[in-house]
Structure formats: structure tokens, C-alpha cells
Amino acid sequence: MKKWLKKVFEQILPTISYIKANRTLKEKIENPDCQSNSSYKANFDQISIDSFRQKYLEAFDTKNKFEDKAKTNVIGITIAITLITASSGMINTIINRFSFVWLHWTAFFILLFAILYLLSAGIVAIKVLFVENTMSVVDLIDLSSDNKDTKIKYDDCINRNISRNIIRNNLVFASYICIRNALICLIMLLILMTIPIASV
Asked: Which helix (H) or strand (E) holds 55?
């Protein structure tokens, strides 16, 4: 039951539900002791430097993919804002068609939730592009080196960057959910506007 409630909470308030997860990941990034994978740290000599370099570059490719998704969300939000401005006409239609005050307030709050969801989605998407856009990099002097210390540095950067990409993934996913919830609110407004009952 608790898991079900947690899932519902994550769908209704996605930005809040991911704050705790991202805070934990940031603590992991800032704590050097949590970065290296001890299961293979002792076998660094058996792993080629090229394997570390490949993993290191893959993290940057993943970062770019999340940023592209965030940009797509921002574009989607601009389109959704146009729908929001048009939805004010829906509110007027509901007010003119029905004399139920509770229905007027219901429509108002649905529109308000849609606006809040879109604002949240936009803030979160922009956060991916401008706030959470840092990456850990290997020093220039180590780029051409091939020794255990260099492998350890690569491993440290890789693990930090993986955690940063998980943070980006959480934010992009939360942005998607907010956009979806805003569209659900707009659909609810459309349904209210077209309820086939006589005006009183």
C-alpha cells in the first residue's frame, strides 16, 4: 500500500519526489570514498586504459542526449503555453454554460494546476541545461598517460559523471511527467466544457 501511495505521489508531484534522490546522488559525487568501484579497483592493471577512456567519453555522450531531451521539453512547453492561453476561452464557456459555482471553481483550479505543472516542467528542463550541466574531467596531463593512477582518475570521473547523468535523467523524467499532467488538466477542461447537460 505504501509503495502504491509513493508511486501516486511521484506522479502528482514529480519535481518534489526526485529532490531527495538527487540530493543523495550529489552527496555521493562530493564524497570521494563513494566513487571508485572496489570490486575491480584491485584489478586496474588488467583493464586497458582505452576501456576507461571509452567509458569516460560515453558519459559525455549521455549528458548531451539528456540536454537534447531537455531542449525538446522547453520547445514543447512553449507550444503548451499557447494551449493554456486558449484554455481561458474554455473557462469562459464553462461559466457561460453552467451556473454551478462549484463547477466554475473546479475549472479554475484545473487550469491553475495546468499552469503550475508547465512552469515546473520549464524550470526543471532549464535546470538541466544551465544548473546541472557540469561534468568531472580528467586533467590534460593525464589524457596521454597510461598507468594505475591515471586509471583511478578516469574511474573517479566516470563514476561522478554517471551520478550526474542520473540526476539529469531524474530531472528530464520529472519534466516529462509535469508536461503530461498539464495536458491531462487541459483534457479535463475540455471534458467539462462539453458535458452534455442543460445550463441551469
From this structure: helix 49-97
